[in-house]
Amino acid sequence: MYTISNRLKMASIIMMAVGVLGMGYGFLSAPSTEAEALAMVAAHDDGHGGGHAAEADHAVADSHGATAEEHAEGGHAMSHGEHVLHQLQNKPWAALYVAAFFFFMIALGVLAFYAIQRAAQAGWSPLLFRVMEGITAYLVPGGIIVFVILVLSVMHMNHLFVWMDADVVAHDKLLQGKAGFLNPIFFLVRAAIFLGGWILYREYSRKLSIKQDAASDDSNFKLNFRISAAFLVFYLISESMMSWDWIMSVDPHWFSTLFGWYIFASMFVSGITVIAMVTVYLKSKGHLEQVNDSHIHDLAKFMFGISIFWTYLWFSQFMLIWYSNIPEEVTYYVTRIQDYRLPFFGMVAMNFLFPVLLLMNSDYKRINWFVIMAGIVILAGHYMDIFNAIMPATVGDQWFIGIPEISAILFFAGLFIFWIFRALSTQPLQPKRNPFIEESKHFHY
């Protein structure tokens, strides 16, 4: 049995505590008046040599769409100061939301990989099932936090989703046409259905997995196979709709038919990366003795392959929109290239160039520290991917990686580490009666 070490437990608690303090500072330091907002922008520009204040006017169109913002205050054009105030008030909320979603999507990506292994009756991976089940335990606290943020958005505690403002919708014909789908109550109902379905499958599949250890036949294994195959159908539909609701709708004037797959690729490779990193850590502590270099090699192959798949989707979405040059579509990328050039192109380098260079060689996929190094780069890159998806529509050009962003990462990383390793300590790390366990033990590539 694995037992979470006091050092790891203390480190995760410290991370959460520091994160809470930093996030609290971010909310308390947010401006409450236009004068404070403009003063903060001026001070930041003086200290960093930026030009945010001079560019604030064009950010109106970049943030939520010109038509929506013109009427966001009940029918009159939003002033420079009002716009900057909303952006800076959104900043701690957006930092919280990006980190909350990022760590939640890791667990959701692991859940998809786990269900695929179950449905495919894969022979190489049963030794890793307990690791996957431990990581997916985070779906409960992570899902609750994301749902609370969505509820607070519906209650107008923030301005993350501009279409939730009735005054905006009243003066925006495009949003009026989408009102049947983008309305607050239906939005929360869909979120509850998605979270309920994902968590229900995880809990039931985990229960069957544990029961199989003490069973005298394979009935639990077979039932797990059937529900996993059925769940994947629900997952593909719900994940796509979730990406439209929780990510794409912050830019309600823009849409992409590839977006569901694009977010899926990001969460899938992030999830597989964390499986590999947790497995390597547990092996370094003397656990998972039967897991060999071939298992790590296969996980690294998935990290490499899905990174290429993500790049294909990113390029397909970007190049088609850029080449067609339709104003309603290309604005999404113009905003990011103008105001987010470093994180935008840096994210592509971290999610494509580094995995290709680090994991192209087959031998490197068997070197544990090399896989960890590649994993850190991949996770940082996909955090920036979600950052690029949320921030331009919520804070416009008033972005920078500061205390709110770093604190949110620390808090959710601490919670993630504490929760998954606590879950790993509740059951033996090796399944006993999985029909493919012997094949997994002797897996060599």
Structure description:
It is a single chain. The chain is mainly α and 445 residues long. Helix content is 75%, strand content 0%. The protein is built from 18 helices and no strands. α5 packs parallel to α17 and α14 crosses α15. The longest helix is centred in the first third of the chain and has 41 residues.
Main features:
445 residues; mainly alpha; globular
The ordered string of helix (H) and strand (E) elements is HHHHHHHHHHHHHHHHHH
What is the CA–CA distance across the termini?
A: 28 Å
The percentage helix is over 70%
Mean pLDDT: 88
Proportion of residues in extended strands: under 5%
User: Which consecutive residue ranges, at least 5 long each, have pLDDT under 50?
Assistant: 49-77
* Structural class estimated from helices and strands: mainly alpha
Strand tally is 0
Provide the gyration radius in Å.
Answer: 23 Å
Which sheet architecture does the biggest sheet show? none
How would you sum up the global shape?
globular
Tally of DSSP helical segments:
18
Describe the protein's topology.
Layout: H1 6-28, H2 34-48, H3 52-64, H4 66-70, H5 80-120, H6 129-136, H7 139-154, H8 166-170, H9 173-177, H10 184-214, H11 219-246, H12 259-284, H13 293-324, H14 327-339, H15 341-359, H16 368-394, H17 403-424, H18 437-441
Task: Please sum up the structure shown.
This protein has helices at residues 6-28, 34-48, 52-64, 66-70, 80-120, 129-136, 139-154, 166-170, 173-177, 184-214, 219-246, 259-284, 293-324, 327-339, 341-359, 368-394, 403-424, 437-441. With 445 residues, the protein is an all-alpha fold.
